[in-house]
Amino acid sequence: MRGWIAAEYNYNIDDSPYDLGLNSNASRVFVSGEHSISDSLKLYGKVEYGISYIEKQHKDVDFIERLMYIGISSHFGSVEIGRVWSPFYDIAMYSDTNFSFKDTASGAFFSPVSHIAGFGRSNNSIKYKTSFKLDTSKLFFSALIGDQKGDNVNSRVSINTNYGASIRYKYKGYQVGLAHQIANADGLSNYDDSINATIIGGMFNSDSFLIGGNYTIGKNNQYDMGLSGNLVNSKGIEGSIHFRFSKSYKVYTGYNKLTTKKDLYSTEFVNFGLLKNFNKKIAIYTEYRLDLGTTKTSLFFGDAVSVGLVYFISDYSHYF
Fold it and tell me: Which residues are in the Porin domain (predicted)?
């Protein structure tokens, strides 16, 4: 078994509707394994659950399915079937590196639409991925089709199928990539028939320094919170920077800005964090969010501060 258990407390200095208080901050456990069928074929799989042990977060739901798939790989690439990471998240992950306040503008998470349309993880899907070595660099490609029938965004909008693809280029610690995701939908306004988004991003990662960011253009992929409740078009930018100045400490910062058509709804904030790790199993952190937005119905309205403790069941060098 692998994963981590976390406890976090958020204090909203202003009256935000997104006041988590004490929460389990995406605690998760998973099991994974693989088996070689032959020299060229390998069978593998993964089951991952989020743990919500703080009752007020999900009432009586203690375990939330995040990933559950089986895959087979060969010289021609890999095929995964089940609940999988979307190709869109291949790029959105470049900025998903902070602990508390993050990843709000791409539409991969924190948007009610994303959990239905498969922008972060996609249900009932078949995903193909492969890579090509180019001398000292590497090119990655993935594509997905998913059956989302029965998933409803709201009382009017339902999802049918979704499709996505991504392409990434990696050279040493550098990565750049592009992805597009589209979900066929019924019940949208203006006679539209799809929810979609295109994302472009980049990342650099070394032992002491990490920087990543992305830019997203979306169609019908966000709510105009607190107003009509309609799905609206959006533009989003996210970024994060981490610097490790000793074996035990690192500082980091992030920036998120989401705007929608006619500024019906927006979110903009910058956050600053400090992490102390005692070893590769235990870490504590604190973050401060400075709100730069104007929409009081934003999920991230107002300044806020968080403190958290994380215990890693297995080593995760990404955080250390």
Answer: 19-289
